[in-house]
Give the backbone structure.
Amino acid sequence: MSLNAFITKETVESDEDGPLSGKTIAVKDNISTKGLRTTCGSAMLEDYVPPYDATVVELLKDAGATIVGKANMDEFGMGTTTETSAFGPTKNPVDESRVPGGSSGGSAAAVAAGEADLALGSDTGGSIRCPAAFCGVVGIKPTYGLVSRYGLVAYANSLEQIGPIAPTVEEAAGLLDVIAGPDERDGTTHDEGADSDYASAATGDVDGLTIGVPTELVEGADEGVKEAFWAALDELEAQGAEYHEVSMPSVEKAVAAYYVIAMSEASSNLARFDGVRYGKSGGYEGNWNDAFARAREEGFGPEVKRRILLGTYALSAGYHDKYYAKAQDARAWVKQDFDAAFEDVDVLASPTMPVPPFKLGESLDDPLQMYLADANTVPVNLANLPAISVPAGETDGLPVGLQLIGPKFDEETIIRAASAVEN
Amino acid sequence: MSDTPVDADEVRHVAELARVDLDEDEVEEFATQFADILEYFDALDEVPEVDREDELVNVMRPDEVREGLTQEEALSNAAETEDGYFKGPRVS
């Protein structure tokens, strides 16, 4: 049976010779590929063929990679299960009755099933780390600004980053080396990462490393997930690392802050899909507003409509201060909590997801419950920090991911620590 | 609970602002879900006021003419065009 990991299966060979020669790569379908259909998992963009490559895709081609298709995803990146895709859900290769996580579920499933050597995903609130954890592979959410977002179809641009998914920490770090660095077409990029060698940071040596465990990110987790998590930390301790619990009260407000900010940005970013500039027109008669509203009714799925409407509400007169302004306060608070924590520790660790992979269809009816599953990943995006998810054992035969979070632009340390988890 | 409960009329109003038509089933479903979600967002009321120390810098470059998409490429995904422009529905 097909996993439905790809929306478009088409091979694009590269003429170049580089570090990714001979490697096959799945590219998430919200990353623009010249001449290759890019749908964002949405019926709205079913026929959209970008006239240019995203910067990361140019970099893949320059590095000699072979693109093997556009990976399935939650519509416009909105979901934690890859079930909101207009092209049907992706199955988890570890257990096909379960979801692969989301929103980069196709990317992680393709790598876990060996349908691609490596993959690119994007992470707005955990969309690389969640599917990496659920499929038993490695995913890195880079520091905000490390990787160019030029050519990434925007969902919530103050939060999202493109990043690698791979079978091992070293391979994920090697792919990050290819895509990291400044880009004059993205003013938020940074000089860090220009001449990176993250792959060689995967030494497996954690002797002397100090790890903080935010209690708030462990307490609510499923028992089996907790057992695997603590066993992984004990293993790191046996290799010479030291860990202790820390308290970060702000992270308990992170999910609410994340969704208010992400939905607000989405309501603005997705305004371009009006059936005239982008998206299907439907050919409706009537005035501009009516025609747009009907094209958008038809083109967007329920989760996208839900987020656009909630974002519009949060930004509307009378509610802006209550929701959006407060969410920005929470974001600043989360950043402060992380800064304070990193004064005493090298990295922070938590389970990537508080639960094992959901059964297909299980979470669709209750959006709030699905949002709460992102509790451990969203604080990282609010604080613009780097984080990695690395496989750390199983619960009932299902993969558990360990998340390691580092200070801004300190990808080396989380890569080093994660490589020790593989030992 | 939010100051104003979310009822079907409010969902319809926001949908109009957002330019998204909804059918009646969606309006009812969203009204119920929004009440739950917004109640959860009320947790933000407990967030203290925080000094933001954003180190924002403007990233500038010279405004030089450079190669871009051709007009044809830029319009290649538009359903309807006329004389090199996007053709949209009438404005009112």
Notes: The helical segments of chain B are 8-17, 24-41, 71-74.
